[in-house]
Amino acid sequence: MKRQRDASNNRSNTVDTLTDFSLLRLLQIHDSAFPIGSYTHSYGMETYIQEDLIRTKEQLIEFCRTYLFHNLVYGDALIIQDAFHATKSSNKVRLAELDELCGAIKLAKESRDASVNVGKQFIRTVAPLIDSPLLEQWKHKIDKEDVKGHYAVLYGIYSEALGVDVYHAVMTFMYASLSGLVQNAVRAVPFGQNTGVQALNELLIYVEQAAQKVMDLTIDDLSNNALGIELASMKHEFLFSRLFIS
Amino acid sequence: MTQMSKEVKVNHFGKLDMAFEPRRGYTRLVHVYQQPPLKASRELYEGQNPTATVFIMESSGGMVAGDRNEIDIKLAPNSQVRLKQQSALKIYPSHTGELCTQSIHVKLGEGARLEWMPEVTIPFERAKFQVDTSIRMMASSTLIWGEIIAPGREMRGEIFDFQSFRSQYKLYVEDSLIAFDTLHLKPKEMDFSSIGLLEKALYVGSLWIVSPNVDKLNVRDLQEVIYAESDMQASVTKLNDHAIHCRWLSKEQRTLHKEINRMFSHVSNLM
């Protein structure tokens, strides 16, 4: 209990009140049945699986931790955070810059394409669910190809429109990313369902830490130190047989 | 040590501005401004080839806490230039805690071509270094750029003993940012041997190829040409229809340097 209170105090400067209704709407987009195609992407993990480097639950957790702390925290999570604030101030120029940045930091073609494809599926799915002029305008810009439509930017716009706070938006995004990876590993390695559940459960504490870390960073901290994952994502394109698109 | 700290250290602020232009069939270095320890050689030519080869020299032997280097390179339309650093860039321990910074700004005009030969940057123990590279080019210009980051003076057993190494590499074509390679290595906070980070590798090699002729290159062919084995991982990816990025993660410097040079000339001959 104490910890919870501390955490909410820490975030008090960024927290809009998280109402039950906005929480439920946030949960819905992270439901595994939400059709944005995350089950088709491994973001390089499949290369490790084929090289037999993810065979145990511990190895899966280690991979996910690196992806979390060295890819998501310093990449998409920072883009989401900035897009969220840019949406608040209706700064469309900034959003366009973020869309460009989001693509530029993803050097591996498949990860970059995945970000755009998931983003486009996301906006198609959420557009009828919410009345947000900015999201509508953004969709128009994507259709006109003025912007690429990266998922992290769209997610930042949408979660701001939902009325959730940026901390929970970032945290649930990272949770859903890891949950997607773990579920994909369960199918591809394969692992038993329980192993997957336990792995994700062990990762939860890191997801919380990662979300807190993001709140202390700004877009100037963008970096990608997960060079192994990036290289694996580049190599994925050339794998002989593949379960996943990325 | 106390004597050392009493010494007033004057920081170096190296500057090198170079502008190139085609004149009478050869590319010439028509403007150069140099402030020590940075210095440029004169242009060298191979036979009738109009490409100017210029060496960038750093006379201080390395950067020390608080030192700055600024390199500014402009290629007028249709210039052809090959730049080589005379030696590896060494970053000395930051005894004062100050950062060494290097910035490199490149501007390529229509049809211009720049080759930046791969050289190694070596952050010594306790070094703090930041390098910002920005390249602005046209869709008609060509860039082949290579670089290598070392973990330290490996021969002395100095491996990831630096304090921080930050590199931000921005590549703009017709004002749109097509690649932003940003690394921020902090050995005290990271276990590089973890899966997904550097794993077994100690050296990072990068090659950037941007040219209207890139569409003639097949990444699948390049992936086959690129040499990878257990001590050296490597791959190729397309940044867009006119840009390719190659990355190496290697346990060893010599084979990496050899490989990146081989790939460099392979691509250079095709472009």
TrEMBL record, chain A:
The keyword Endoplasmic reticulum belongs to this UniProt entry's keyword annotation: no
Cellular location(s): Cytoplasm
Keyword field: Chaperone, Cytoplasm, Nickel insertion
InterPro entries reported in the protein's UniProt record: UreF (IPR002639), UreF_sf (IPR038277)
Keyword Chaperone attributed: yes
Top-rank lineage group of the source organism: Bacteria
Similarity remark: Belongs to the UreF family.
Subunit-level organization: UreD, UreF and UreG form a complex that acts as a GTP-hydrolysis-dependent molecular chaperone, activating the urease apoprotein by helping to assemble the nickel containing metallocenter of UreC. The UreE protein probably delivers the nickel.
Function: Required for maturation of urease via the functional incorporation of the urease nickel metallocenter.
Protein name: Urease accessory protein UreF
Species the sequence originates in: Lysinibacillus parviboronicapiens
Gene: ureF
